[in-house]
Design goal:
The complex is a heterodimer of chains A (about 120) and B (about 110). Chain A is mainly β and about 120 residues long. Chain A has no helices and twelve strands. In chain A, a hairpin with a 4-residue loop joins strand 8 and strand 9. In chain B, a hairpin with a 2-residue loop joins strand 7 and strand 8. The chains are: A mainly beta (about 120), B mainly beta (about 110).
């Protein structure tokens, strides 16, 4: 069975600090996708990134970066020079497959609430 | 205009009432999903649909039903609402790649 663990329930940082959100996953599949979503205080869920299991290259997008390590089954998310607008709940998710014509079950972690203090 | 819309955005209803939550999407995706979000529990899948003729139960389907009226429309019904169905409900769509695009959510309160 697949599982996603976000052990950090809440994190508070002061603006401009760097912060890393941890995500550890479990799966028996060799083919899978990993995702991060952001849920700001307004409540909507925003897709941030998808990474497939064959691509272990780290990704950087502006102040955001993602570190995927299959050896430790982790897909961590770092925000550099945090800003108040980064305050949100962040969800990590795992999808096994894809399977031809089949459902890719998506399992979400329980989320990490990040508060950036001005 | 938003790619995925949900109506209503907020709803307060009484125990035992039937209620329908509606979702529409303009992304052209075949796959649609209904989730509920409860504090500390993340997102849990209620139902999903791969096309108009394909409806499947998720992990917490008891007490819910769905209808896929068209590729772009997927409705969730609570046949007889109960207080523990108070939650934030999200509709989502995806293509085969798997990343999901969510609606703005419906906050449902059952008193």
């Amino acid at each position: 069975a697949q599982k996603v663990t976000q052990a950090q329930t809440e994190i508070s940082v002061v603006e401009k600090e760097d912060v890393t959100l941890d995500c550890v996953y479990e799966t028996r599949d060799t083919t899978y996708y990993l995702f991060w979503y952001k849920q700001p205080p307004s409540g909507e869920l925003v897709f941030l990134i998808r990474r497939n299991s064959f691509d272990e290259q780290n990704e950087i997008s502006g102040r955001y970066s993602w570190n995927f390590q299959k050896s430790t089954s982790s897909f961590n998310f770092t925000i550099t020079a945090s800003q108040v607008v980064d305050s949100a709940v962040y969800f990590c998710a795992l999808s096994e497959g894809p399977y031809s014509g089949g459902y890719q079950k998506v399992t979400f972690g329980t989320g990490t609430k990040l508060q950036v203090i001005p | 205009d938003a790619d995925v819309t949900q109506t209503p955005r907020n709803r307060i209803t009484k125990t035992g009432k039937r209620i329908m939550l509606e979702c529409s999407q303009t992304k052209g995706h075949d796959r649609m999903y209904w989730y509920r979000q409860d504090p500390g529990l993340g997102l849990r899948l209620i139902y999903y649909s791969f096309d108009v003729k394909d409806i499947n139960k998720g992990e917490i389907s008891d007490g819910y039903s769905v209808s896929r009226q068209a590729q772009a429309k997927f409705s969730l019904s609570l046949e007889s609402a109960i207080p523990n169905q108070t939650a934030l409900y999200f509709c989502a769509t995806s293509d085969f790649g798997g990343e999901q695009y969510f609606g703005p959510g419906t906050r449902l309160t059952v008193t």
